[in-house]
Description:
Layout: E1 2-5, E2 18-21, H1 28-40, H2 47-63, H3 65-76, H4 80-85
Antiparallel strand pairs: 1-2
Amino acid sequence: xxxxxxGKTNSDGAGxxxxxxxxxxxxxxxxxxxxxxxxxxxxxKPLEWRQAQLKALYNLLQDNRDEWADALNVxxxxxxxxxxxx
Length: 86
């Protein structure tokens, strides 16, 4: 199964239907172990790293505001006005 997402053209030139592939379930334990090792390395602790992550999340939400609003409407029945007021 391949999921698609509607949206603006990405900086890499990808079109309106960027395709995402599902993760093979057999790979999940390996990916989980890799993430645990990363977390335990304390790479996520420096303040600068956390601030950069929060800024990146903020930018992601701002850059994809319409897509988030569409998803919240489809999934939770939220109207555009509700999304913008929160």
